[in-house]
């Protein structure tokens, strides 16, 4: 195949990558609407509300981690920061909820800034550094929680955050959606977005073109830590409790949603709205699984299959390799 043919195939793959998040969400929505064929029960208003509540719980975690991936790094400490945010909000915010959120967000921002600053100034890989951050913050969580569960006595805040708005929304999901839109607008209409993607695509070239990559990495990790801590704080207020260890399921959900949302693991590509679409798709998929009462292993297999499909679409040079294989097949002499 000619070079122009290769370029055409690569362009088709680029377009497929761009619409994949929407296609996945549409496919999951069709599956949800066809539930009467599978379970005998249609998707209820409460199920839609529950989907948005799940997105509200883990959306900010996905946004924080997703931004670090776009910039070419990976934050393993995010789930520990999420838990820390919940613990600090409960500990300091029973009488003054805003103070609890402020302490939580401040601690998350500090943790992110420290890790991002060390990483950017020394060149240390984000994986071992944030793994160390995860271990350290997890230990701090044990101390803050005193090896137990902190309960939050201000039930009115939880009710305020989770009371239905227009039947399917809540104040918590509306706050999360507003943050996603604000981040999307900042990346779309200011130089922040191009600088983040340039830093993630090629840090040396970005630095040569005038991007302050050290500051950019630090600021992205600062914002990521603040997002994760805020998500944990809102979740703790909603459930009126905070645990020192939430397990890895929330982190796995977030990373899967990020990849479904079109963020490249190589960095340099992705946006907030794509991550939001991924979060909504995974949340709706969880609602479908719950309504179908599928066993855990089938849920895991379905998620893994979806993730594998997205990874194949995102595979670098996939179009070129397929085109090369087809050319070789066509060039073979017939028997």
SSE run = HHHHHHEHEEHHHHEHHHH
Stretches where pLDDT is under 50 for at least 5 consecutive residues are none
Q: How many H/I helical runs?
A: 15
Structural class, judged by helices and strands?
Answer: mainly alpha
Number of extended strands: 4
What strand line-up does the widest sheet have? 1-4
For the biggest sheet, the summary is: 2 strands, antiparallel
Q: Care to describe what's here?
A:
- The chain has helices at 3-33, 35-39, 45-70, 78-92, 97-122, 126-145, 155-162, 171-189, 192-201, 203-208, 213-239, 249-260, 272-292, 296-314, 318-331, and strands at 149-151, 164-165, 169-170, 241-243.
- α3 runs parallel beside α8 (171-189).
- Helix content is 77%, strand content 3%.
- The mean pLDDT is 89.
- The strands form two sheets. The protein has a two-stranded antiparallel ribbon. It has a two-stranded antiparallel ribbon with strand order 2-3.
- It is mostly helical and 335 residues long.
- The protein is globular.
Blueprint (SSEs and pairs):
Elements lengths: L2 H31 L1 H5 L5 H26 L7 H15 L4 H26 L3 H20 L3 E3 L3 H8 L1 E2 L3 E2 H19 L2 H10 L1 H6 L4 H27 L1 E3 L5 H12 L11 H21 L3 H19 L3 H14 L4
Antiparallel strand pairs: 1-4, 2-3
Helix pairs in contact: 1-13, 1-15, 3-8, 3-11, 3-12, 3-13, 4-5, 4-6, 4-11, 5-6, 5-11, 7-11, 8-9, 12-13
């Amino acid at each position: 195949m000619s070079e122009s043919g290769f370029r055409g195939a690569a362009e088709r793959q680029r377009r497929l990558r761009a619409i994949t998040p929407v296609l996945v969400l549409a496919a999951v929505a069709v599956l949800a609407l066809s539930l009467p064929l599978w379970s005998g029960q249609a998707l209820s208003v409460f199920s839609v509300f529950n989907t948005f509540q799940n997105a509200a719980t883990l959306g900010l975690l996905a946004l924080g981690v997703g931004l670090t991936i776009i910039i070419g790094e990976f934050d393993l400490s995010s789930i520990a920061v999420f838990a820390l945010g919940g613990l600090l909000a409960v500990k300091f915010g029973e009488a003054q909820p805003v103070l609890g959120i402020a302490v939580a967000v401040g601690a998350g921002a500090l943790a992110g800034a420290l890790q991002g600053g060390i990483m950017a100034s020394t060149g240390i890989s984000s994986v071992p550094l944030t793994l160390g951050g995860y271990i350290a913050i997890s230990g701090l969580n044990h101390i803050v929680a005193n090896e137990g569960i902190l309960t939050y006595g201000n039930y009115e805040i939880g009710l305020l955050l989770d009371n239905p708005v227009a039947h399917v929304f809540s104040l918590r999901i509306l706050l999360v959606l507003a943050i996603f839109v604000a981040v999307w607008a900042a990346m779309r209409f200011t130089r922040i977005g191009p600088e983040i993607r340039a830093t993630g695509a090629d840090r040396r070239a970005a630095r040569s073109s005038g991007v302050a990559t050290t500051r950019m990495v630090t600021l992205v990790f600062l914002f990521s830590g603040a997002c994760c801590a805020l998500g944990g704080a809102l979740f703790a207020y909603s459930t009126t409790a905070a645990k020192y260890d939430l397990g890895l399921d929330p982190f796995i959900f977030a990373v899967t949603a990020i990849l479904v949302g079109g963020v490249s693991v190589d960095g340099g590509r992705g946006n907030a709205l794509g991550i939001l679409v991924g979060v909504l798709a995974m949340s709706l998929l969880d609602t479908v699984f719950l309504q179908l009462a599928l066993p855990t292993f089938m849920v895991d297999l379905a998620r893994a299959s979806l993730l594998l499909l997205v990874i194949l679409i995102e595979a670098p040079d996939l179009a070129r390799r397929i085109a090369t294989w087809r050319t070789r097949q066509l060039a073979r002499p017939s028997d």
